[in-house]
Structures are given as structure tokens and as C-alpha cells.
Design a protein that fits this description.
113 residues, mainly alpha, two-stranded antiparallel ribbon, globular
Length: 113
């Protein structure tokens, strides 16, 4: 992914039951490819998600390296494609609600608003 030419996915997009994970994968792929542009990997929000996943920055980079599909990354991280856990659903909802203003501003900056 070339973040000098396109935007990462929205932080609200769910992957494996987690918000922000698809965005982290996009940013990490760009980091690995040297096309991160003005984005930061890992930013503080990335780190909050990685902490929740109990995954280090290096582990995320290793999971992304050489993959082209999200399922490959999820498999490498040991995460399911969907997760019906009610505690995770509650956490995900709070994660998004606590960042609503930032997500809205981000959507505007990236042309999704």
C-alpha cells in the first residue's frame, strides 16, 4: 500500500471484530514498503490496539511482511476473521465512541466525510 498516493482504511472499519485493525495493517504495509508518507506507524492509537491484541510493533510488522490479504495477517496473529465475543463488541464500541471526534476529522481529511 502506498500512503503517499492513497489513504489507509477508516479506523471505524471492523476486521476480526476490532476497529482500527484494518487501518493498522494498511499503515504497517506502507511502513514495510517504505511508502508511509506523512502517516505514523505505530501512532499512539495503533499502540493502544496492539496492546489490546497483545501484539508488539515487531510482531505486527512480521505478520504483515510478505502478505497481501488481511486473512493472512489475521492467521499469523492468531485472530479469527470475525469474533462474536460480547466483551470484544463492548470494547470495540467504546474504542470508537472515545475517538469519535478524531475519526470524524480523519474522515474529512481523507475525503470520506
Amino acid at each position: 500500500m502506498d500512503l503517499t498516493k492513497e489513504f489507509p482504511r477508516s479506523g471505524e472499519e471492523m476486521l476480526g471484530g476490532y476497529p482500527w485493525l484494518a487501518r493498522v495493517i494498511d499503515k504497517c504495509r506502507a511502513y514495510v514498503d517504505g511508502t508511509l508518507g506523512d502517516y505514523i506507524f505505530p501512532c499512539p492509537i495503533d499502540m493502544q490496539l496492539l496492546t489490546e491484541l497483545n501484539v508488539t510493533e515487531d510482531e505486527m510488522e512480521a505478520a504483515v511482511r510478505g502478505t497481501t490479504k488481511d486473512k493472512e495477517v489475521l492467521d499469523r496473529l492468531g485472530l479469527p476473521e470475525s469474533n462474536p465475543d460480547p466483551d470484544l463488541a463492548k470494547w470495540a464500541k467504546e474504542f470508537i465512541e472515545n475517538r469519535r471526534d478524531s475519526l470524524r476529522r480523519q474522515a474529512e481529511e481523507e475525503g470520506r466525510a
